[in-house]
Amino acid sequence: MPSLSTTVSKVLEICSRTDTSPNDLNKVISLDPVLTGQVLKLINSAYYSLVNKVTSLTRAIIMLGLNTVKNLALSTAVIRCVGQVKKSKALPIKDFWAHSIGVGVMAKLLAAERGLPLAEREEYFVAGLLHDLGKIPFGDEYIEVLAQAKNEQLPLIHLEKQHLEIDHEEVGEMIASNWRLNPVITDAICHHHSPEQASPEHQALVATVALADFYICLFDIGNAGNRYPDGEQLPTLLAMCDLEWSAVVGLSELVDEEIQKAEIFLQV
Q: How many Å separate Cα 23 from the centre of its chain?
């Protein structure tokens, strides 16, 4: 996997500080014309539906908030990196991103259902978006694993270790470490099939991403190869999220609408 750009790495570093101001972020982003354009494009997009156009980068950062700008920089950089990776016939990238966006959207909706403040929900979206990052480097040898998972209706992660001696959570951990992603996003990438193994302070987010992944796989939104999620895990995930399955299914009408908004956010 390619490395993240210097600008994005700097944005992540600055946003991890407790005393960061919009002006600090402006100084870094203004040196990157592409990222500047993305921030201004986002604030003026249908995602926010503003009456008056925003042309000032600093004003855009203030209006969006540091967390949203950070997540925009990270998400678009990851999409760009994935675009540079040799395409595999095993996992069509369009279907993969449809799945990833679906999980991000559902995780954000579940965070809202749990009563989390708006400022925290973007973190859930990005964690969901990036959860399957470890599948990207697998090449055509992945075709046999995906075929067996489909034919035998088994959870994909169980077969990865058997065939490849490594699973996508472990590969994801290597990428997250190389990119120096923050601990909560890293935990979501490394433990979305076993949220109880995540750091205690991150378990609620990781379980929410896992529950979102279960829903998106079950209802075939996109495809990341895991058509048959582990049904035995569902009661545990619901308990960890303090949610009822009826509440999760009740969000179905919002999912398509929010996926369309997310595609604007990511400019896919």
A: 27
Asked if residues 156 and 146 have their Cβ atoms less than 8 Å apart, the reply is yes
For residue 217, count other CB atoms closer than 10 A to its CB.
23
What is 185-217 written as a DSSP string? HHHHHHHTT-GGGS-GGGHHHHHHHHHHHHHHH
- Can you tell me the distance from the alpha carbon of 175 to that of 162, in angstroms, rounded to the nearest whole number? 21
pLDDT per residue as tens digits for the range 39-96: 898 888 877 778 899 999 999 999 988 888 888 888 878 777 776 666 667 788 888 8
Would you give the distance in Å from CA 17 to the centre of its chain? 22
| pLDDT tens sequence across 207-240 | 999 999 999 999 999 999 888 888 899 999 999 9
Q: H or E segment at 59?
A: helix 57-64
Distance of alpha carbon 123 from alpha carbon 131, whole angstroms:
12
Contacts of 36 (CB under 8 A, 6+ apart): 29, 30, 57
Strands (E) located in 123-267: none
Sign of the CA dihedral running 247, 245, 235, 105: negative
CA 121, CA 241: separation in Å to the nearest integer?
A: 14
Q: Which two tokens stand for residue 103?
A: 């999980």
C-alpha to C-alpha distances, 120 to 5, 54, 132, 166, 257, nearest whole angstrom: 25, 24, 21, 32, 20
pLDDT digits (tens, 9 = 90+) for 162-184: 999 999 999 999 999 988 888 99
User: Whole-prediction pTM value?
Assistant: 0.86
How is residue 245 written in tokens? 């399955």
